Amino acid sequence: MSILVTRPSPAADELVARLRRRGQDAWALPLIEFTPGRQLEILPERLQSLPPGSLVFILSQQVIRFIRAHVTQVNLTWPATLDYYAIGRSTALAFHTLTSQHVSWPQEQEISEALIRLPALQQLTGRQALILRGNGGRELLAATLRERGAQVECLECYQRGAKALHGAEEGRRWRDRGVDTLVVTSGEMLQQLYALFPDIDRDEWLLHCRLLVVSERLATLARKLGWAHVCVAGGADNDALLCALHP
Asked: Coil, strand, or helix at residue 183?
């Protein structure tokens, strides 16, 4: 098994290193890269203006990464009077390490569908919610919170953008290395991966690879695009991906 990990750095590099330590062939091909969000500057003000009992959602570790870089430049405090939620265990632990605040997360999967099933989020009339995320994120969480009565604001803490890659060169590189397993952790990256390569590489190689994704939603999308061998990991963190890639 030769594995190509398409998730962003540094998570991709960490997963590849762990795979190689146990003797597997693995390489990283990050498809997107991140830059600071346009609304980081107003985060301290927004946090301080939230009334007690308001909800704060942290939707990825990239949020924490850019907040951590920004916090050294501003006086940022996380009020203990707010209720904090993370998209999954890894993000929750990173947030707790940064802030020392209690944070809740879904035990099932690191996806919005699992987050909105938490019992505490079913009735939100009169509550305020602040969603910390990247640009162009899914609207499911915000829309659901509004339907349940919350007043919602989304704050862009980072921006994601596609990396410039030459599809024909990448196709030759990974076919020559015998890559037969792909790791993809978002729908955006799945679409990019599909569109990156010329038709001949897609038809003769890409769609014949085993594809590891992190949700049933992505598995459904992958099958629609033409992948036949699709597996779903138990989570989006590297521990769950490593377990799913056990030879």
From this structure: strand
Q: Calculate ∠ Cα 19-199-171, nearest 5°.
A: 35
Give the amino acid at 16.
Answer: V
pLDDT of residue 68: 85
In degrees rounded to 5, what are phi and psi of residue 81?
A: -85, -5
Tokens of 132: 């910390």
- Helix/strand/coil for 211: strand
> 34: which strand partners?
160
The sign of the dihedral angle between the CA atoms of 220, 222, 223, 224 is: positive
The pairing of beta strand 25-28 with beta strand 2-5: parallel
CA distance between the termini of the chain:
8
pLDDT of 125 above 80: yes
Give pLDDT, residue 151.
Answer: 97
Which is nearest to 137 in space by CA: 115, 121, 165?
A: 115
Write the single-letter amino acid at 111. I
pLDDT exceeds 90 at position 156: yes
Q: What is the pLDDT of residues 201-232, one digit of tens each?
A: 999 999 999 999 999 999 999 999 999 999 99
The tens digit of pLDDT for each residue in 97-115 reads: 989 999 999 987 778 899 9
Contact residues for 73 (Cβ-Cβ < 8 A; gap 6+): none
Residues 6+ apart with CB under 8 A from 151: 127, 128, 129
DSSP letters, 64-106, are HHHHHHHHTTS-----TTSEEEESSHHHHHHHHHHH---EE--
pTM value is: 0.76
Give dist(CA 54, CA 51) in Å, integer: 6
Please report, for residues 124, 187, 189, the alpha-carbon distance to residue 194 in angstroms, rounded to integers and kept in the order given: 39, 11, 9
Neighbours of 40 (CB within 10 A): 22
